[in-house]
Design brief:
This protein is an alpha+beta fold. It contains seven helices and eight strands. It has a single domain, classed as Alpha-Beta Plaits (2-Layer Sandwich), CATH 3.30.70. It has an eight-stranded antiparallel β-barrel, surrounded by four helices.
Length: about 260
């Protein structure tokens, strides 16, 4: 049990904005499950009672499990970590063949399938993302943000986050959690992203209202205005594509079984 809890307690990164001494070279996977109407509670129960234990059994590191605050699509969003792509493929193959998983899936679906469809995205930690560690943030909400850049401008966006944005987020009361770019190899992933132009990250806030206040203060900060102008001048224009697709935000709350809270 202790070894299982140790595996499950590997959370995301701490609130520090300082990159770790050694880069986090693991492969991360963001998975989004769209539950059938009325089946989200049953899906969460299956994760709570069976899936996380079986993930750990087969070498998958569970990070965070979340549901959107405004969950009109009946979504479950979660993150896993693997040593590399080979480890990912082997773990999922073993999990899918496990008799305990087959029994749990069959029992949970005796009144019908729980999932309508799934999307998954392979991620790698940015150079400025600290190494993952177990942590309970004990805050109100998490925010999942996705930035899509103009062609060739992801390095400029990463540099701006590394050199300016993370520090300014902390200054204005936001807690940095984790930062990822898409893995170069998206083979097998079912998502709407393209490797080479996407930054995905997590923040925490005391509340949605606190998040708005923090971002309002951040955007008005002369240091941010100067950093934004300098980065766009260097790149020859905006680093992100036009709204509404350039920057997307979704507020999440952790499930009761999430290792990170």
């Amino acid at each position: 049990m202790k070894s299982l809890l140790a595996l499950l307690s590997l959370g995301l990164m701490s609130a520090t904005v300082v990159a770790a001494d050694k880069p986090d070279t693991r492969l991360f996977e963001m998975r989004v499950y769209y539950a059938k109407p009325g089946k989200l509670d049953a899906l969460n129960a299956r994760f709570r009672d069976h899936t996380l234990k079986l993930f750990a059994k087969h070498g998958m590191t569970s990070l965070g499990y979340f549901v959107p605050i405004n969950n009109t699509e009946n979504k479950l969003v979660y993150f896993l970590a693997f040593a590399d792509r080979a480890a990912h493929d082997a773990a999922w193959k073993a999990f899918g063949a496990d008799p305990d998983w087959k029994a749990a899936a069959k029992e949970s679906e005796k009144n019908g399938k729980l999932i309508d469809h799934i999307s998954n995205t392979f991620l790698t930690a940015t150079e400025f993302s600290a190494l993952a560690e177990a942590k309970h943030y004990n805050v109100g909400v998490f925010e999942l943000r996705t930035y899509t850049t103009e062609a060739g401008r992801l390095p400029d966006l990463n540099a701006r986050f590394r050199d300016h944005t993370l520090k300014l987020f902390e200054k204005h009361g936001m807690t940095n959690v984790s930062y990822w770019n898409l893995a170069d190899d998206q083979k097998g992933a079912k998502n709407s992203y393209v490797a080479g132009n996407t930054l995905i990250y997590l923040l925490t806030h005391k509340s949605e209202e606190a998040a708005k206040a923090s971002f309002d203060a951040f955007r008005a900060d002369p240091a941010w205005v100067a950093a934004k102008e300098a980065s766009e001048k260097k790149a020859g224009g905006s680093l992100t594509i036009a709204q509404p697709n350039g920057v997307k935000s979704e507020f999440l709350v952790p499930t009761d079984y999430s290792p990170i809270k």
